[in-house]
Amino acid sequence: MAKKTNKDLNKNLSETLKEVDMIKPTNKTKKTVTKKVEKVVKDILEVKFKKIDEFANIPTYAHDGDIGMDMTATSVEYNHDHDYFEYGTGLSAEAERGKAMLLLPRSSVSNTEAFLCNTPGLVDPFTYRGEIKFRYKNRTSIDTVILKCAVRAWNVLNWWEKWNYSFEELEEKVRKNVMDNIWSFAPYKIGERIGQMVMVDTPMVSVKVVDELSETVRGEGGFGSSGK
What we know:
Elements: H1 6-22, H2 27-42, E1 48-51, E2 69-72, E3 75-79, E4 84-88, E5 91-94, E6 99-104, E7 114-116, E8 121-123, E9 133-138, H3 142-155, H4 159-164, H5 167-180, E10 193-201
Antiparallel strand pairs: 1-5, 2-10, 3-4, 4-9, 6-8, 6-10, 7-9
Helix pairs in contact: 1-2, 3-5
């Protein structure tokens, strides 16, 4: 469940305690107040964060009542072999057993050409102590960008320039220029909010192998079985 801030908790407890002072104590009202206090505390999930990078930003809610907490980039690296940008948050986390951290893109990702590689990302905060990271790919690969730019450049050359060097040489020049300016293709810059985290309950699963499963109306209807 979403984590409330200490400010929210103190405010709720303060309001509850005011009600206690105003209400004439009876067994019934005591039970009601006790339940309210228990609910406020129960709604809070404590997640511990460790700063691996001193400049890391602790996740925050943009608005009261939001589900996802924004996460900020402290580093970025480009992986040419797999053509993705890997963003570090400078944070590692810890939470109790049975809690999972989902990493999701923010809605602003639609203003870029990028997508989160493993949407949603999954962090096991009960066991994993490494840095929380996001990997983004652009829908148009860098190699495709290089090839398109090289073809355009080749098409505007005159016959004498084409005679003096090959398309491969021109493509290599374009490649060097693109790689020198690779960060212009990154969807986010360091210091920007790159995604959001959501905490969810994940009960432990006990697997039981059976010969038959109960029948349903849907049955074995799979992809597209309910229509377009």
